[in-house]
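Hey, quick one: can you model this chain's 3D structure?
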Amino acid sequence: MGNKVFLFLIALFFLSGCLKNTPPNSQKILPSPTVKPIEETFSTWNDEAGFVFQYLEGVDVKQDTADDTSYTNLSLTKVGEDGQILILAKDTKLKDISLWNKNADDIIIGGKNALSSVLEDKKTIGVIDEGILFTIEITGNSPALNTTFAKIKNTFEFVYPTSSAKSTDSSQFDNAIEEESVVEE
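Sure thing. Here's the predicted structure for all 185 residues.
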């Protein structure tokens, strides 16, 4: 009889473990880590050739001042990354951008009709303004330059010099003493 009681207690012990109130698949749920988006900071380039754009901070902009055939010749690079962005502004005899490249897609840049083409590892955008052909070209596979190219494409604007009236510095009159003429009779 002792064996029966002993077996009964063992069976009861196992059954009590199986009948515990634990929900199936009860895994402890850990909070998922939140991923903060990387904030990108941009700088603005304002070119004397009549345009402005934004580019990723940390990208180097160099102007080729020895180029006397262009209104502007810019090279944008990122240290440690392959490729570059070239921006040129040159006179053109073309009256319509559609004549510039027959195998390109129509886009708008700076509020003007433009063309965008891809040839192997080179993307090029062309736009004409006031008889000047502006080209923006990227080569290579640099993440920073790809971000910059997209930002240039979205922020490129034509700016025109405005005549500003000469302003006089009013401070030169601040210390002037008004004199009254007194006529004595």
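One thing worth noting: The longest strand covers residues 84-91.
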